[in-house]
Amino acid sequence: MSFNTLGLSEKVLAAVEEAGYNEPTAIQAGAIPHVLERRDVLGIAQTGTGKTASFTLPMLTLLEKGRARARMPRTLILEPTRELAAQVQENFEKYGKNHKLNVALLIGGVSFAEQDRIIDRGADVLIATPGRLLDHVERGKLMLQGVEILVIDEADRMLDMGFIPDIERICKLIPFTRQTLFFSATMPPEIQRLTETFLQNPARVEVARTSSTSENVTQRLKAAMTKDYEKRAALRELLEGAEELKNAIVFCNRKRDITTLFRSLERHGYNVGALHGDMDQRTRMMMLENFRKGNVTLLVASDVAARGLDIPDVSHVFNYDVPIHAEDYVHRIGRTGRAGRKGAAYTIVTPDDQKYLSAIESLTQQSIEWIGEAVDFEAAEQERKSRKRGRRAPKAENLEQDNEAAAPKPKSRRKPRPEKSDEAAAPTAEAEAEAEAEETAAPARRRPQRQETAKQPAAERSARNHRQSKGEPAFGHGGHIPAFLLREPRPKKAS
Ligand code: AMP
Description:
The chain is of the alpha/beta class and 495 residues long. It has helices at 10-19, 26-36, 51-63, 82-95, 112-121, 130-138, 155-160, 164-173, 189-198, 228-241, 255-267, 281-293, 303-306, 326-333, 354-364, 377-391, 399-405, 421-425, 429-441, 443-446, 450-454, 458-468; strands at 41-44, 75-78, 103-106, 125-128, 149-152, 179-184, 203-206, 217-223, 248-251, 272-275, 298-301, 316-319, 343-349, 369-370. The longest helix is centred in the C-terminal third of the chain and has 15 residues, at 377-391. The N and C termini lie far apart (78 Å). Residues 393-488 and 491-495 have low confidence and may be disordered. Residues 21, 24-25, 28, 47-53, 310, 312, 339 line the site of adenosine monophosphate.
C-alpha cells in the first residue's frame, strides 16, 4: 500500500517522502483514513508501530484549513510523560516542515511565564501532560472550548500513573463535538470504560496483540540471587558477554536502584547515563539526546521515563529487575528490534521473581530460554541446603544466618569490618558497596585486565566457576551449575 492512497495532503506526502517512508505501517493504514473522515478512533497499538504518525499526519492535513486563536488551541494531544510529549512535538516538526503551524508544548519543569507567552500566540497544536495542562486552565490562561481534535495517547500508561481523573476532567472541558483519537497498548477495564464514556462510535484499529513480542528480539534469562551486588555482577557478566552490543537500555523497577546501578556501572568503567522521573526536564532531554547520538552507551532507566521513547536503534535491553507488570516486559523489550532490526533482551531473575516471570511467560505465551540450563530455583535452594547439612548440623539459632552464609563474603582491604553475626545476616548497603569496592579495587588479583575479561568467552567463565566448585558434583542442573550454588558457605565465627 502507498501513502498516496490514504487521503493525506500534498504537503504531508512531501514530508513523508522526505522522511524516507515507503509505505504506511498497519496502524497508519488503518487509522489515517478514519481520522481524515473526522471519525473518532480507538487505536490499540504500542509504540514502535508508527502510531505517532498515524495521528500527526492526518492532523496536519486537517489543520491546513483554519487558524489558531489566542489562548484557544485548535487541537490537543495528551501524553503521560514529558519525554513523550517532546517526542510528539519533534514528529510535528518533522512532518509539518511544509506547514506554518504553531506547535506548543506544555510540560512540567518549564516556567509558566514562558508557556503563557506561547499560549497567547495561539496554538494550532498543543501537546501537554495532564497535570500541567490543568494548571494552566485553572490559572485562567488557557481555554479548551476551541479544541477540534483531542488525542489521548498511551492511555494505559496514564492509568498506571494515576492520570485518569485528570483525563476525565479535561475531556469534560472540551466540546462534545470534538473528534477524539484514543491510543492505548492494552485495554484494561478502566480504559475500556473511559472509551465508552468519551468516544463516539469510534473506528477500532488494532494492530498487534499487546502480549506479542517481536520475533526480531532474542530473549534470554539469567539467574542471580537476590542480593544487589550479585545482581550487579550478573549484569556486568551479561554486558561483557553480549554480542554486537552497540547501546542498551538497562531497566530498573525502582528509582533508587537506578542511582545505585548507575554509580556502580560508572565505577566499573562503563559509559553510562541515567533516566528517571525525578530528574529535571533539561537533564532528561540532554541525557536522551546523548544516548541517541551515541555519546552514552548504556542508559539505566525506569519504565516511566523510558515508555514510548523513540530511539530507533537500540541493540540490547537488559532487565536488571523483572518487571512487576507483565505488559511492561513487552514494552521494555519493544525498545530493541525496532524497524526490522535485530535486538536482544536479557532479564536477570532472582528466586523472588518467579511469579513475575510466570506472568510474563503466560502473557507472551512463550517460554524464555535461560542462559545455560534452565534454573529451578526451588531445587537449587533444596540442594544448597542439603549440601550445607552435610557440612554441619544446623542449629535453630543459625537458620537466619544460612542465607547470608551462601553469599560471597565482602572482604575489604580498605576498612576492617566488625564480624558481627547480625551484620552478616542482613548486609547493609555499606556492606554491598564494600563488596563492590573490593571488586573494583582488586582488578590485578582477579582480573588482569578489565577489557580482557569483558571479552572472556562464556566457556572460560564457566570453567572458572567450576574450579571454584572444588570438584563437588551438583545434581539436577545438567552441565550448568548456577554460580550461587558454587559459593563456599562462610564458617560460623566463634562468638
Ligand atoms: P512510533 O510507534 O510512533 O514511536 O514510531 C516508531 C518508529 O517508526 C519511529 O522511528 C518512526 O520514525 C518510524 N516510522 C513511522 N512510520 C513509519 C513508516 N511508515 N515507515 C517506516 N518507519 C516509520
